[in-house]
Amino acid sequence: MTRASLDKQPHEVASMFDDVAERYDLTNDVLSLGQDRRWRKEVAKAVDARPAQKVLDLAAGTGTSSLPFARTGAYVVPCDFSQGMLRVGKRANAWLPYTAGDATRLPFKDDVFDAVTISFGLRNVQDTDAALREMHRVTRPGGRIVICEFSHPTWTPFRTVYTEYLMRALPPVARAVSSSPDAYVYLAESIRAWPDQPALAERLKGAGWSRVAWRNLTGGVVALHRGFKES
User: Fold this and answer.
1) Integer distance in angstroms from the first to the last C-alpha of the chain?
2) Residue ranges of the alpha helices (H) in the chain?
3) Is 102 annotated as a binding residue?
4) SUPFAM superfamilies given for it (predicted)?
5) Residue 174 is assigned to a ligand binding site
């Protein structure tokens, strides 16, 4: 298997996710100690999808993250650049309009979506700022962005324990439950290298988003960032 490096060559990252697609949702549940379910509920609340609204769910993988939006009556487009992930998702929920796409060059027209969201995928994009600009481009004026991403715990003692878990405990657990444990070593390294909460907020503003704010989940292990496209 190809293990992606932190310079995030798109073909390497896509190949890595292709390799873990079959057991991706199960592995995430185990590695997060079940917290990923709570985090996704918080994402759904923040997106606040409504009937007939159009929602773009980027880095949707198998589409698990898209289902809560669909249940509200919104039209949700799960988009991912891993063909393996999309194939697994299509088998489970063939009715969803799975779309292959690169977050830095989205295959959609300007001003299409009421909301754009990405969960645990932005740090795997080769050019974060280009992706944030693309999300802004495809969002209609007045629309919103919600980003759920691993971040930096705010309490120093907990941050130390968390970092130890990422680099020491996560790889052996991944070996036990994942079809491709090297992918999770990369993921742990990418989490450590990711900007903290204020730094990501500044990048959102730099891409054109306004009223940017964030809140921490699980003590800052995960952060929800939200912004709006001015009307």
Assistant:
1) 45
2) 10-20, 24-31, 35-47, 67-71, 83-92, 128-138, 156-164, 170-177, 182-193, 197-206
3) yes
4) S-adenosyl-L-methionine-dependent methyltransferases (SSF53335)
5) no
